[in-house]
Structure formats: C-alpha cells, structure tokens
Design brief:
Low-confidence stretches: 5-12
Number of helices: 11
Shape: globular
Oligomer: single chain
Largest sheet: 4 strands, mixed
Helix content: 25-40%
Strand content: 5-15%
Distance between the termini: 38 Å
Radius of gyration: 19 Å
Structural class: alpha/beta
Mean pLDDT: 92
C-alpha cells in the first residue's frame, strides 16, 4: 500500500529467477513459485503473469491504469484492480495477494475506509493508515506457543532463540509484507519484521488467511500492535544462527526500552 501516481517511473526488475523458493520465508508461497517458474519463461508483463496464477478476487493491471490524483488504495477498492509496475516490489505484492487474498482485501478495505473518513489523502496518514501500511509492507504473523510470544515481546533474545529453541518446532513465522520479502531477496542479519500482535493468539490452521483477515480490527491496529523480530534469528532461517554467538549483537538484537522516569 503506497502512494503512487500513474506517471511514476518503472524500475528495472531483477526477475523472479532471483528467488530461492526453498527459502523458509517463501514456504507459504512455494506452490505459486512452481507456476511462476513456468510463466516467467514466457516473458509476460508483470500484471499478466500475476493474473495467470489464479483468481484472487482482484485483477492486476498496468500502473498506467491508475487515474491521476486517485489514491492507490481507493482505486483498488473501487475497481477491484491492482496497479502493478514492472519490478519485484509490485510482483511480490501480487504474490501476497494470490496467497493471502482475504487478508490483503481486509487491509485494503480498511485503508479505503480511512481515506473516505479523512476526506481524502492528506499530508499525514494518521495512526490507523500508518499501521496498515506498516503491516502491508513489512509485517509478519507469528504462530507460536505462549512462551515464545512472551520472550519476543520482552525482547529476551537469548531466551527466545537459545533457551526455548526446541519450541520453534511448534512455531511458524509467516511473512506478509511484500517489502520485507523484497529485502529478503538479499538476506542480511539486520532485516527486521514487524510482527503483528493480534488481540487473541492465532491458531495454526489450514485457513490461516481467513483467520488473519478476521483478526484485523481497525481500533486494535490504530495502536500499532507490532513487535520487532530480526527474522534471520529464527531457527532454520540461516545457518549462522546455529551458533549462540550469532545473537550477541546488540545492534540487531536490541533490548527493550526502559520506561522513562519523570
């Protein structure tokens, strides 16, 4: 979800071949990856390739379809079409639409409603739109036992990743943010997700898209219910984190801020 104009220049795309579909952060998207490998060889434009992946309730169209002066989110809500540029940022946005259509539709509906209530796109997005954009671009969803959640929210990194490491076999981190997926095309230790903290813990179920969508409440989101998580710290997400010393990096694994005493 971003503010863009119909005349915005396209950037060269590195191509879908840059993606390693065996990477753990792409696990929810692997089935789509098999289709993309075949379609990418045909040299299709990005909107056409994404449309060929199936019907997600939205149609992908060239960036030029976005009318001048109309907000990107409003256009999607009004037309059911997603303006898409010829680079991987927008391609990955489409990939998330294809896999998590209900969640993306809910985010878009909340954005469009907020724009209407504000009387249009102003100089400031406001708390709700800020949170929606943050989740859409850099968000992730954690399905995990309570002990992992507590350690994460308290930023007890050694406990989260070392002491409780066996519990990660019962956990799953789902990357939703397309900008986050784009960053992970070139993995670096500081890459950090904003993990959504729902009002109630989400169950690990097959229809997780519907569960995530149903948990996206405007009032709750306006409080920016996110906690940072350096994603390469997740067990299995990089070989280096098998060593305890990986987490001895205060520039990446930062302590929780202490409340200021006035």
């Amino acid at each position: 979800m971003d503010k863009r104009e119909a005349t915005a220049p396209d950037r060269p795309a590195p191509g879908w071949s840059s993606l390693d579909w065996q990477a753990p952060w792409l696990q929810p998207y692997r089935a789509l990856g098999l289709q993309i490998r075949a379609l990418d060889a045909q040299g299709l434009a990005m909107p056409d390739l994404l449309n060929r992946l199936g019907d997600c309730g939205r149609r992908f169209v060239p960036q030029s379809a976005l009318p001048a002066g109309e907000a990107y989110e409003s256009f999607i809500a009004r037309s059911g079409c997603v303006p898409t540029r010829e680079h991987m940022h927008d391609g990955l946005n489409g990939l998330v639409w294809q896999r998590f259509a209900r969640s993306k539709a809910r985010l878009n509906a909340l954005q469009a409603q907020a724009i209407v209530q504000a009387g249009g796109v102003g100089a400031s997005r406001g708390p709700l739109r800020d949170a929606l954009t943050l989740f859409d671009e850099n968000g992730a969803v954690l399905l995990a036992p309570d002990a992992l959640w507590q350690a994460l929210q308290q930023r007890q990194w050694q406990r989260l990743f070392v002491e409780l490491r066996p519990l990660w076999q019962q956990a799953q981190l789902i990357v939703i943010g397309h900008a986050l997926l784009e960053k992970l095309m070139a993995p670096r230790k500081p890459i950090t997700a904003h993990v959504f903290c729902p009002p109630q813990r989400l169950p690990m179920v097959d229809n997780i898209d519907a569960v995530i969508a149903d948990s996206l409440d405007a009032a709750h989101l306006a409080g920016k219910p996110f906690t940072p998580l350096p994603v390469l710290g997740v067990p299995g997400w990089c070989q280096e984190n098998q060593h305890v010393s990986f987490y001895d990096d205060p520039d990446v694994f930062r302590s929780a801020r202490r409340p200021q005493i006035s």
